[in-house]
Structures are given as structure tokens and as C-alpha cells.
Write a structure and sequence with these properties.
This protein is an alpha/beta fold. It contains 8 helices and 9 strands.
Amino acid sequence: MTFNQITIVITSYKSDEKIVKCLKSINNQCKVIIVENSKNKSFKENIEKNFTNTECLIAGENLGYAKGNNLGLSKVKTKYALILNPDAELENNALNNFLNTASAIKNFAIIAPALQDEKNTKNNSKALIEVDSVKGFAMFLNLEEFNDVGFFDNNFFIYLEEIDLCIRLKEKNKKIFVDPNITIYHQGGSSHEKQYNFEMELSRNWHWMWSTFYFTKKHKGFLYALLYVTNKLISASIKYIFYSLTFKKSKQLIYKHRISGLFNSIIGNPSWFRPFNNN
């Protein structure tokens, strides 16, 4: 089967080694667009030299998941796009199975694989399942279904943007499916290299809290969102004080970032925090 109907879009950041495994799992007949959220031109040179089916766009700044994928999707000229995380790997028949399912059901917005966190995970069910939302690590998009919905909300940096997109699709009566016959292995939370773990942990905590309030406010209103996050703010504040008093610097920083992300979202600031100052 030829893959000229599919373009794979990958948004990366400090994923130099992780992304190689991902790209090796992709059939070289399939077009790949990488959005590298940095200024690292050598990354682009190395990737395009070793993977001739791949175009790498250097964003010049850390756009995050939503804006990065939107940039990649804006360059897609095929009927379908597969959004893929850098720490995901395709099973041999994954692309064929996406196309087979797309051909069989036609009027869909998203097809997602069965969630595969480990390579030995088994799923005995083979039936296609219609769902309300899917995980963002692998999303097969029927692009014409997005003309009246758009893609990701650029206000999100990371977290909950795929759930927000799914909600907007369902409001337009678009169909979202999980296909247990499609396997994509996903490490989860490890799209970057290990030496960046703590800085990325701070970023995750900041943005999880920011996105939680923004998402809830967007879909339930400001007052509901404020009530929803009150316990989270109190809990983070108590833990920040406790770890400050016990001189556990790393824990103190984590809860400081949780408070900051939530506070900035409540007062309407954009999701401005970036690890490594956008290097």
C-alpha cells in the first residue's frame, strides 16, 4: 500500500535521540513534517540527512504542543494527517490499518490507536469503538472534517488541548474512534532526553495547573473553574510551605511552579512559562 494520502506531523523539543526511534518506525514512503520547538539548526540538518522523507521546520522558539502541531498541520497537503509524539513508535502495520479503517468508515474526524504504554500490552477486543475523546500521542485526522472546527486552541501550551479539540468536534457531531487493531507504542512523559527531566518536570507542573483552570473556565465558566481549582491551590500552597520549612528544594520548586501556573491562569495571563528560556 502506498502512503501518499498521509502526512505525519511530529512536534519535538530536545528529543534528539527519542525521535530517531520514532522515525525509524515510519515507512519511508510516508511524508513526515517535524516542528522542532527550538533554534537548533543542526537538529534539522541531521534529521533531513538521515531521513529523506522528512521535512524539519525550526520554530525558533518553544511553541508547545498546540501551536507546534498547528504549524505542522498548516503545511500538510494530503487528505489525512497523523499527529505523533516523538516518544511513540509505530507497529509495522499501523499505517496500513489506519488507511483500511479510514476507507471503511469514511465519515470520521479522528481515529486513534488502542493505548499501548508498553510493548507487551495486549488488547483482546477488535471492534471499532466510538468515543468522546482520545489521547494526544497519536491522532489520525481526516482533515476535511476540521474545516469548520479548526485544530488546536493556540492558548494551550501543553495538556488538555486534545480534549478541548475533541469536545469541539463532538459539538459539531463529528465522529471519533479508537481502533484496537492499530498499535502504537508510547512511552509517555518521556519525549525529551533524561538530562532534562527536572526542568521539564517544573514545566509540566506549571502548565498542568494553567491548562486545568483555562480548560475548565472555557467549558464551564470562570466561577465554576475557580471553585474547581480552590482545593488544588490550597494543597499546593500547604505543600510549598512544608517543603520550604524542611529544605527540600526540588519539591519546593515543583509546588511553587504549580501555584504560579494556576495563579497566572486565574488572572488571565497567557501560558508563558518555558523551560530553558527557549534554547
